[in-house]
Design a protein that fits this description.
2 copies of one chain form a homodimer. Chain A has 400 residues and is α/β, with parallel strands linked by helices. The first copy, chain A, is built from 7 helices and 28 strands. Chain A is elongated and about 95 Å long. Chains A, B: It holds the Pfam family MoeA_C.
Chain lengths: 400, 400
């Protein structure tokens, strides 16, 4: 089958893709790989943290009732029975009338129920004068005060932030089960396409789309699987796709830009699976194909790099985001157009713009050229229901 | 020397650090590693792109003067001399009265100066009826129209975006010289600190700061160099720092949280180099040390993980950004405080908040606890000149 299905709106194309976004499943990783990963179950404290009563100041561990009424004029006088070393597991104990020096982070001696900051004490031989009353529980944390056994440390589905890797370390979580990072196969097709390391003869062009796809996939937090350049032969493309389905969770095929090649890609996808969308009401990027082979979404991107890239932004980003569980941040600003952007109603236009001092200049060029991708700072989206923007209009520019 | 220098404002601490930020220099990388790297010189096209006259539509290459006056009622009749294959280096030539089929992306035959889209033609045997006049230059790109030899493809200092990796591929740029990614050594000190894979005895705590430092460094686009846990012995710390200076562009030392340990760290830094700042008017994070050993900035972070992390956000981020050349995006939103935040004048406070439905709840807890790092969605910065915010105040929340 290679009949053209009707051109669908961008939002329908995105819905189609999201409806077939596969769950990449789970994998086990070690703590040092946990940054920005997403646990698939609540991570629970298996023991109390910090696990012992811990001073939060440099000072003297005391029994608070010994300090009732203490003041500068009438300090409480306590016998210092020594000094607790950092990391020591044996802080000893104190009884009424005694105190013991404890550094910040040190373990409280048995019997103590408060710490007096060193600033509020004076030393007189082995006696410590305490100038201020301490209340029970002051200046230390209880063994389970940070996290108690059984408490949720990081909830399921939460993307682990830098500071949270430390909490995992504190809890001794050395491995964890997280959402697997989706792998996305990248295939380039076209008899005119050669690898970047080759010198093109006239009529040949270096493969641009593969590395742009791979870079975009990386930017989306997924893993690109480069599958090379396939000539415009259905058997070769079939073999490449069948191989890619085995190794990847989704496939991006940047089609040749001629109609024959696009048709070949659609035909092969249809034979191996099914086609959901063939043609999107988007400019550039109309001849995009959305298919599915087994559980694997397959996107046939246009051959023109600038078209392919805009389609990635418009529809592949949401797919990868759904698969990875990671929202792709989009940064935008307002700008005034210094030239009009005409647009056909019923079609979403993605017009690249150059931005300077709040003024956006639309970059129009012949299709297939790369330089608008380099010269632009972002793009303006013209909604399907709009006929474009006039000079002087204030528009939202979505920044690269 | 270990005298305390006066506590300095946050902005002065940042200025001090920026004044000693080393240039990490350059390194050569291959094209597949170019994403998000920063070239140190303009990248120039060494040949024309696309390098040949290239059709941008499916249609017939013609000599435009053959189509003057052509219309639906009186089409121009041209002899089709064949079909140009994609990737073919030999498109042949045409003379007056002839045309040749050329697919999108195909090479123009010699003699042709326009392409008529297939939609405006009809086939009659080996004759092609052209229903519309073509103007010279229409529907193809000239050999140097995308980039001409000598043109700047990507300017020096520009961070290479996904779409731009494709332009490098098109130009056959297989390797490039870019700013080296800074390496940052991470040392934890403290006799009470044990590796996360160990089971803590009472009085011991697992190393939280190292992995938080390493995660933060990764988030900033730099390379962490884990240097392990060093006991509170000047000789051990000296050896660890001397080793780190050899391998890294900057050093983060998370100090023990007791005053003795902080003093030891400052003393060692002073002996090996110099101390610029010892104490910052920031809460949490006051006992931070900024030093320099050779050309290597050394930051002595507080031992409390939440303090260390806020200092990373406040002063280490700007340093890494200056070294890497990569701005670290900061996302913020407005929210209404549901409780007041008192603050001492002259000190910048970083108060972690929980955020829900536009309401920010300040999270206060004893120092040294980790859970505010997990429970918070971001933080509110109270400027040094402010005495805090009252309940109901609308504040800016900087999101994690």
């Amino acid at each position: 089958m290679s009949r053209f299905i009707r051109v669908v709106p961008v939002r329908d194309a995105v819905s189609s893709l999201l409806s077939i976004a596969p769950d990449p499943g789970m994998e086990s990783i070690v703590l040092s790989e946990a940054l920005f990963r997403i646990p698939h179950a609540d991570i629970i404290a298996s023991h109390d943290i910090p696990g012992f009563a811990r001073s939060i100041v440099d000072g003297y561990a005391v029994i608070s009732t010994d300090t009732i009424g203490a003041g500068e004029s009438l300090p409480a006088m306590l016998t210092c029975t020594g000094r607790i070393e950092m990391g020591s597991s044996d802080p000893g104990s104190i009884v009424a009338g005694e105190c013991r020096y404890v550094p910040t982070g040190g373990m409280m001696p048995v019997g103590a129920d408060a710490v007096v900051m060193i600033e509020y004490t004076e030393t007189a031989g082995d006696q410590i004068l305490v100038n201020r009353p301490a209340s029970s529980g002051e200046n230390y944390v209880a063994p389970d005060e940070d996290f108690a056994t059984g408490e949720v440390i990081i909830p399921s589905g939460h993307r682990i932030l830098p500071q949270e890797t430390g909490v995992l370390a504190a809890a001794g979580i050395l491995s964890l089960s997280v959402r697997r990072i989706p792998r996305v196969a990248v295939i380039a097709t076209g008899n005119e396409i050669i690898a970047p390391q080759c010198d093109p003869l006239p009529g040949q062009v270096r493969d641009v789309n593969s590395i742009v796809c791979e870079s975009f996939i990386l930017q989306c937090g997924c893993i690109p699987v480069p599958c090379g350049i396939v000539p415009d032969e259905p058997d070769a493309l079939t073999a490449a796709i069948q191989q890619a389905v085995l190794t990847s969770d989704a496939i991006f095929i940047s089609g040749g830009s001629s109609k024959d090649e696009r048709d070949a890609t659609a035909r092969v996808i249809a034979e191996l699976g099914r086609i959901l969308v063939h043609g999107i009401a988007i400019s550039p990027g109309k001849p995009t194909i959305i298919g599915q082979i087994g559980n694997c979404p397959v996107i046939g991107l246009p051959g023109h790099p600038s078209s392919a890239f805009m389609v990635m932004r418009a529809i592949c980003g949401p797919l990868l985001s759904a698969m990875s569980g990671i929202a792709i941040p989009e940064h935008a600003c307002s700008a005034t157009l210094d030239a009009g952007i005409p647009s056909a109603k019923g079609r979403e236009d993605y017009v690249r713009v150059h931005l300077r001092d709040g003024v956006a200049s639309p970059l129009f060029s012949k299709s297939g050229l790369l330089h608008t991708l380099v010269q632009s700072d972002g793009y303006v989206r013209v909604p399907a229901e709009s006929e474009g923007f006039e000079t002087g209009a204030v528009v939202e520019v979505i920044l690269w």
